[in-house]
Design brief:
- The chain is mostly beta strands and 157 residues long.
- The protein has a domain of 85 residues: Elongation Factor Tu (Ef-tu), domain 3 (Beta Barrel), CATH 2.40.30.70.
- 6% of the residues lie in helices and 29% in strands.
- The strands form two sheets. The chain has a six-stranded antiparallel barrel with strand order 1-2-7-6-3-8. A two-stranded antiparallel sheet has the order 4-5.
- A hairpin with a 2-residue loop joins strand 6 and strand 7.
- 12% of the residues are buried.
- The mean pLDDT is 89.
Length: 157
């Protein structure tokens, strides 16, 4: 199998969405919005509803999703917005234009009603396919030694 860069992979992976994002963002996400104030829903396919059991015990969750509206060929070197014009590798960025188009977000879980998860802080477009959900566990997922990588250089300038 060949990807967009022409690399040949011996393995083919097929993923199927478990749900869909319902969001106020139809064509794009404005850059000047406070994301914590944005509410959206994740509608889970009824076949996976039982998988939500006890998820509401968590304050935050990881959402793995697919950038379904991206139709650009990924570049390995990118210039992130608000980065002062510096270039970095795509894997050192949060660019949605990626070799596999997979996104990850940590969102606030507000509540669950049936097969719908109500969240805030998710900047996904309406209709975004959700690939998986995992609980954010503060004692395991928060790393005190984490840094801000090349963003730290921006703050020094």
């Amino acid at each position: 199998m060949k990807n967009l860069q022409g690399f040949v992979y011996p393995l083919h992976i097929e993923l199927h969405p478990i749900g869909t994002v319902r969001s106020p963002f139809i064509k794009g996400v404005p850059g000047n919005i406070e994301m914590d104030q944005v509410e959206c829903r994740i509608v889970i396919d009824p076949a996976f509803r039982d998988g939500l059991f006890k998820l509401d015990a968590f304050f935050h969750i990881y959402i793995l999703f697919y950038f379904h509206k991206i139709n650009k060929k990924p570049q390995m070197i990118v210039k992130p917005p608000r980065a002062g014009g510096i270039s970095v590798g795509v894997f050192a960025s949060r660019s949605p234009v990626r070799p596999n188009g997979i996104g990850i977000a940590i969102v606030k879980l507000k509540h669950i009603e049936g097969n719908e998860i109500y969240t805030s802080g998710f900047d996904a477009l309406d209709g975004t396919p959700v690939l998986d959900i995992k609980p954010y566990i503060g004692s395991k997922d928060s790393k005190a030694e984490a840094n801000n990588g090349w963003f730290e250089d921006l703050n020094r300038k």
